[in-house]
Every structure is written in structure tokens, then in C-alpha cells.
Amino acid sequence: MNERNASSAIEVTDLTVAYHEKPVLWDVDLDVPPGVLMAVVGPNGAGKTTMIKAILGLMKPAAGQVLIYGKPYQEQRKLVGYVPQRGSVDWDFPTNVLDVVTMGTYGSLGWIRRPGRSEREKALAALDQVGMRPFADRQISQLSGGQQQRVFLARALVQEAQVYFMDEPFQGVDATTERAIVSLLQALRAAGKTVVVVHHDLQTVPEYFDWVTLINVRRIASGPVKEVFTDKNLRLTYGGRVAFLSHNGAGEMAVKQDV
Predict the structure, then answer these.
(1) Deepest of 8, 119, 156, 174, by most Cβ within 10 A of its Cβ?
(2) Whole-number Cα distances in Å, 206 to 60, 165, 174, 209, 227
(3) CA 89 to chain centre
(4) Mean pLDDT in the chain?
(5) 255 vs 180, which has greater pLDDT?
(6) If we measure between CA atoms, which residue out of 253, 227, 257 comes closest to residue 244?
(7) Rounded Cα distance, 117 and 9, in Å
């Protein structure tokens, strides 16, 4: 393991993904240090979700390499937690909240052992963290969108991962749930975890995150929010078609339309 890889939580080199020979991601490089809360931002169709899935081995890239703490993802799988888009989950599957969260312990159990008291206690503790313990016996199909999202966050928490990938965790949730999720993500960062979040709300990026990656098929920029999240980089990412940031007279960032 070389020094550069050892100091990176996530290192992506020359990652290219194509659908029907059309590039969706092109030659993306990414170097994410440990202990940051990073937003992945870009327009619809920019390749945000594709990048996450390719990093996790859920999609086969045409080219590129992914390292987690200096080793291939396949060797570091137990260090990684994943929260998919809520819309990609079959919420009619007949199972309850506690069972869904307990599934997050399977990776550490292996194929032979079955979840026991210890795993159940971990699952209940994770449900406490997201405010969902009273719903432990509830069928997942009976939950609201925000409650479902909290359950999947709890499932990721019981994995006790070092790196978390979350695909639009704020999508379709109410303001109370959004605040709870933000607090949880910031607590993970404070504990030294690396958290990567596909995010669409430009206005909240400076408030919620300390690191950001801007992509539109190619990586436009990546680094600390204060350095990277600029008018220039947002114009490069979105063109002149959508919102970008500007500084108002009070020195605060605000979203306005580029027309």
C-alpha cells in the first residue's frame, strides 16, 4: 500500500461507464480523504448514481480502478455501507422494520451464522439513533417515505462501516426527517466516518456538507466546499440552464437563476 492510497478513504482513477457504448461517466478521478461529509452534485443524467454504483461494484465499468483505504473494493466490502434511492426498493416485500435493519449485520456474520441476540440489540440501537424504535414491529409497507428512509439509514448504521454511500437520502422526506438525517450524517463525520451523499439541493450544500464533488459525465471539481462550490464551477457543471450560487450583500451564499 503506498502512502497516497493509505491516506485516502476513496480513490477512483480513470472511471468510465457506458450504456450502449455511450459514456455516462468519462475518465473520472476522485480522491476523498477520511472523515469528510461529501455531496455529489450535478444535473439530471450527470452520472451521480452511476458513479456510486460503479464504485460499489453494482455496475461494471468500461475502465477504471476503485480503492477503499488503498485496497480494491472487493477486499474492503465490510468497511462500506450503502443506502440506495428509496424508489429502487420493493417496499411491498413482507418484512418488518427490525428484520430490515438486522439485514445490515449479515455481512459480518457470513453465510453460516444466523442473527442472534447481539445482532438484534445492534439493530434496536440503530433504530434508536434514527428515532424509529417504536416502529420495530411495523411492516415496512406501512411506513411513510421519511420513515422508510430512516429505516434504511439504520440498516447502514448496524454495518459499523468506515465509508458510507447514500443516494439522495433527502428525497421525498419531510423537514423534520431531513433535519434528523443531517444530524446523523454530521455525527458520522464527527466519529471519523467518510460519508458520500448524492444530493440535488444546491442551496443546502454549504450548510450540510464540508466537501463536494461536481460532476456532469466528467468530474468538474472536487474538494472543500469553500474552495470548490463557486459560481464558476457550478456554471461549468450546469451550464446556463439552472441555479447557481452567488454571494449576497451580507456575505452569505444564495441560489439564483442564471438566465
Answers:
(1) 156
(2) 32, 19, 20, 6, 11
(3) 16
(4) 85
(5) 180
(6) 257
(7) 32
